[in-house]
Amino acid sequence: MSDDVVHWNVTDGVATITINRPEARNALSTAVLREIRASVTAAELDEHVDVMILTGADPAFSAGVDLKEAGVGGRARGADDPVEHSRGPFPHHAKPLIGAVNGVAVTGGLELALQCDFLIASERARFADTHSRVGVQPGWGLTVLLPQAIGIRRARQMSATGNYLDADQALSWGLVNEVVAHDELLPRCREIAADMRSNDQENVRQLFATYDLVGAGTMEQGWATEKDRALAWPGNAWDPAEIEARRQAVVDRGRAQQD
């Protein structure tokens, strides 16, 4: 695993995975996605690890897929990208994964957060689905996982407007479990992880697997439908200049909404 784009360390049975591209607001490049997968796999295989925490280097959790990189080839990253897994950016894992959202989680970054087992947010966290502003279709389960978290009507509102939710609104909508002071984010996540570790770990993993199985029917259909529609979307092929213009418009609009 690289010490550049993703950091990985283990303390007291908890693996902390940190996306480390702060200059790019932790945009999800091919290298980042590969290192996240490698980190989750390493934690899953490490007998000394019971819980994982995923976060970003300040000031962002992740601004989403790296559209600058996607624009080099004139194609936005789609659901068929070889670095992507059929069920999103994470490999299969049985150990709990806590999302520690320290800043913006936008579009692909929001999807990354949604694939964590639950989310703890800093007071600085902000969430948005800007797929429609950029002009791409989701391929990492947004249409399955976002309604599951906040309900279909609120999910549609987020996707259709591209507007940001601040941490308090995300809490009231059920997107995150808790909101804490920024400096307390990782300590709080580690406290929760310690509580989780105090239980029978095989039992915890069995419970999480049962949660997955209970909702597997409709969710499996949803994942397949989303993937098919993303692959068929003609907007996946773009001029690189158009990608950059849309990316910059999303950034400018997010800053304006924060002011």
Low-confidence stretches: 72-85
As for the number of domains, it is 1
Largest sheet: 6 strands, mixed
Helix and strand string, N-terminal first?
EEHEEHEEHEEHHHEHEHHHH
CATH architecture: Alpha-Beta Complex
Number of E-state strands: 10
- What distance separates the N and C termini? 38 Å
What does this structure look like?
The chain has 259 residues and is of the alpha/beta class. It has one domain (6-182, 200-258): 2-enoyl-CoA Hydratase, Chain A, domain 1 (Alpha-Beta Complex), CATH 3.90.226.10. 47% of the residues lie in helices and 16% in strands. It has eleven helices and ten strands. It has helices at 30-45, 67-72, 108-114, 131-134, 142-150, 152-161, 167-173, 185-197, 201-214, 216-232, 240-258; strands at residues 6-11, 14-19, 51-56, 60-62, 97-101, 104-106, 118-122, 126-128, 165-166, 178-180. The strands form two sheets. Strands 1-2-3-5-7-10 form a six-stranded mixed beta sheet, with helices on both faces. The protein has a four-stranded mixed beta sheet with strand order 4-6-8-9. Helix 1 (30-45) links the parallel strand 2 (14-19) and strand 3. The radius of gyration is 17 Å and the shape is globular. Mean pLDDT is 87; it is low at 72-85.
Question: What descriptors fit this protein?
Answer:
4-stranded mixed β-sheet; 6-stranded mixed β-sheet; 2-enoyl-CoA Hydratase, Chain A, domain 1; alpha/beta; 10 strands; 259 residues; globular; 11 helices
